[in-house]
Design brief:
This protein has 227 residues and is an alpha/beta fold. The chain has one domain: 3-Layer(aba) Sandwich (Rossmann fold). The protein has an eight-stranded mixed β-sheet, sandwiched between helices. Helix 4 crosses helix 5. The N terminus and C terminus are likely disordered.
Length: 227
Amino acid sequence: MTSMPMSTHQHRARATPQTGALRRIASARLPTNWGIFQAMRFEREWWTAGRTAERALALLLGDLSQGAPLLRIHSQCLTGEVFGSLRCDCGGQLNLAMQAIAQEGRGLMIYEFQEGRGIGRACELKEVGIDTIEANRVLGFGRDFSLAAAILHDLRVPRVRLLTNNPRKVRALNDAGIEIVERLPCEVGSTAHSRAYLQDEKHKMGHALSLEIPAPGHAANGIEVQL
């Protein structure tokens, strides 16, 4: 990847008492199974108990300057995306969103490098009957969408059609000045291993899920049906 110089706009925006300015670190073409994306790596400093860095990769396809492109904000999940874990829907959602963006011919994926499921410890807690919400509380996990909003401002994408089941994403982006023209479902079928987790998301976290169980040999109704 090649180093990217910072613009005045990039330096000026996005700094808060808890975060530093957003930096665009690198950019390169990325051929994928869904098409050739432009990959941009972003980073900003973050202060909580100490100083750390937040990182994300934005994958861009097509012209984003007109209308409201498709957007998926996705949190890293090694077990679901690499090892095919059936405990969550992360891998399926990633594939579904990439396919939807490719079918439309334009859009972007913001992939945040934060382990959404807390490999190991979170799974251990769930093994003894602690649900997703309580496990996240015990481990101090929480989603924050301000980095994604800062990236959208940097890319000058003020309006999006958001691929999500999570109403908190809609509110957070709206509060950060990004107009959500439409929320589109990004749902994959549940399994015997993921059903309890998805029920927690639906009933305790307010996610818009149907929790349909796909028939053998058939994919669950997904975003490709909605577009």
